Amino acid sequence: MADKRNLNIIVLAAGLGTRMKSRTPKVLHKICEKPILWWVLRTLSSLRMSKTVVVLGHRIEEVRDEILNWKEEIGASFFSRNVFKIARQKKQLGSGSALKSASALIPKKGYSIVISGDVPLIKTDTLRKLLNEHKRTFSSATVLSASVESPFGYGRIVRSINGEFIKIVEEKDASPDERKIIEVNSGIYCFSNDVLWNALKEIKPLNKKNEYYLTDVVGIFKKNGERVSAVSFAGPDEILGINDRYDLSKVEKILRLKINGALAKNGVTFIDPENAYIGPDVKIGNDTAIYPNVFIKGSTIIGSDCVIGSGCYISNSRIGENVKIRCSYIYESKIESGVKIGPFAHLRPGTVVKRNARIGNFTEIKKSYIGEETKVSHLAYIGDAHLEKNINIGAGAITCNFDGKMKRETFIGKDSFVGSNVNLIAPVKIGRKVLIGAGSTITKDVADGMLAVERGRQVNKARRK
Ligand code: UD1
Ligand code: CA
C-alpha cells in the first residue's frame, strides 16, 4: 500500500450542475437516501491518504455545511484538521480551473488522485490499483478509463494504431470518428504532483465550451514527453458519472440492486429485488420476505421471519421477529415480535406495539403504547394513549386526544373491552376489566371491573303514513 504521507486526493465538486435543472447543488442529490458526494467521500475515506481536498464553488456554503454533517457516518478521522480541506473555485471555468484552485493546499511532491464528485459507484480497490499502476510505471499521469456501451457525453480516449495513449477528446470537440470510440475517460486520474501544477498553467479554454479542461493536461504531458497511460481497471458501472436526472435514476437502480443483493445473500427473500427500495443503513434478519413495492428507510431494523407485504413504507423503526405487515405506513415506531399490522394501518412516531398485538385495517396509532395481545382491529384512532395488555378495541372507537388547545392522554387497563364507535374524551382513565358499551362517549374515569354506558335511549315509533 501507498506511503500514507504522499497520497493526496482532490475531489472536484464546484460545477454548476446545469444539466440537473435543479435548485439543489448536483452533488447533494440523493441516491438511495444519501447524497452523491457522500458516496464518493465514503469510498475515499478507506484509502490511506495524507490529505483530501474537496473543491467547491457553486452554492459552497450549502454543500460545505452538508458535508460537515457526515462526520459521524464517514468517520471523524477523515475530517480531522490538516487532513480534510475545502478549496474554493471562485469562477466555474471548467474542471482544469477547479483543480488549480486546490493547488495551494497540495504539496509539490507525491501523488494526487483527482476524482469528480459525481461518480458515486467507484470502488476503493480500483483507486488503489490506479495508484499502484501509476507508481509501477513511473508515469506523470494515469487515466482511469472504461469501455462502455453508450459513450455519449464522456471524453474519449484516443489511442494510436499500436494502442498507445494519445489524448482525451471531449464529446463536443470530437470528430465523427472519435465519437465512435467506446473507451471513455472516467474523470478519475492519478498525477505526479511535481509535473502537474506546471502543466495546469498551460491549459487554455480553446474548445467548444470555452472551458479550462483538466483533460488537456494529459495532452500537454504527452507533448512534453512525459509518460502518460490510460488503464481500464474499472467496470462500466463503476465509472458512471451523474450529469442529469436520468443518470441519477440509472445509478440509483444499480445501487438498489447492490443493497438488495447483499441482503438476499444474507437470507432475506425478495419477490422482486428491482422493486424494493431499501436504504443503505437498514438491517433485515434472515427468512424475512420483502414483497414488491416496499420502502424501508433510515435506521430501520427488522428481525427474522417477518413478512413485509406490498405497499409498506417503514422508516426509522424497529420491528421484532415474525411480524406480518401488509400495506401500511410506519414511522419511528417500535413493533415487538408476533405483531400483525394492516392492511392500511398508519403508525405514527412514538408508537410502541408489544408482543402479539394486532393493529388492523384503517387504524391510526399516534404516540401510543399498545400492550401485549391487545387488538385494535378496525377503523380506530388511538392517540397519546397507553393501552395495557389483552384489551379489545371495537371498530370505529377513537381517543379524542385534542381538546382544541392541548393533546390529552388516555389510559386503558388490562383485559378491558371497548365497544364499537366509542369516543374516549381525553384526559380519561379506564380501569382494568372494564366493559364500555358500543356508541358511548366517555368523559369520566371508569373504575376497575365496571360497565360504562353512555347512550340515548332508543325509541321506536310507528311511522306516519
Ligand atoms: C468530465 C470530463 C470527461 C469525462 C467525464 C467523466 C472534463 C473536461 N471532462 O466531463 O472527459 O469523460 O467527466 O464523468 O473534465 N467542476 C468544477 N468546476 C468547474 C467545472 C466542473 O468543480 O468549473 C467539477 C464538477 O463539479 C464535476 C467535475 O468537475 O464534478 C467534472 O465536470 P462535469 O461538468 O461533470 O464534466 P463532464 O462533462 O462530466
Ligand atoms: Ca460529470
3D structure, described in words:
This protein is an alpha/beta fold and 465 residues long. The chain is 18% helix and 29% strand. It is built from nine helices and 41 strands. The strands form seven sheets. An eleven-stranded parallel beta sheet has the order 12-15-18-21-24-27-30-33-36-39-41, covered by helices on one side. A hairpin with a 2-residue loop joins strand 2 (30-31) and strand 3. The protein is elongated, with a radius of gyration of 31 Å. It starts with 6 loop residues before the first strand and ends in a 13-residue tail after the last strand. Calcium ion is lined by residues 116, 118, 241, 243.
Short description:
The chain is α/β, with parallel strands linked by helices.
Topology:
Elements: E1 7-12, E2 30-31, E3 34-35, H1 36-44, E4 51-56, H2 60-68, H3 71-74, E5 84-88, H4 95-101, E6 111-116, H5 124-136, E7 141-147, E8 156-159, E9 165-169, H6 176-179, E10 183-192, H7 193-202, H8 215-223, E11 228-231, H9 245-265, E12 269-270, E13 276-278, E14 283-284, E15 289-290, E16 294-297, E17 301-302, E18 307-308, E19 313-315, E20 318-319, E21 324-325, E22 329-331, E23 334-335, E24 340-341, E25 346-347, E26 352-353, E27 358-361, E28 364-366, E29 369-370, E30 375-378, E31 381-383, E32 385-387, E33 392-393, E34 398-400, E35 410-412, E36 417-418, E37 423-425, E38 428-430, E39 435-436, E40 441-442, E41 451-452
Parallel strand pairs: 1-4, 1-6, 4-5, 7-11, 12-15, 13-16, 14-17, 15-18, 16-19, 17-20, 18-21, 19-22, 20-23, 21-24, 22-25, 23-26, 24-27, 25-28, 26-29, 27-30, 28-31, 29-32, 30-33, 32-35, 33-36, 34-37, 35-38, 36-39, 37-40, 39-41
Antiparallel strand pairs: 2-3, 6-10, 7-10, 8-9
Helix pairs in contact: 7-8
Bound molecules: uridine-diphosphate-N-acetylglucosamine and calcium ion.
Residues 116, 118, 241, 243 line the site of calcium ion.
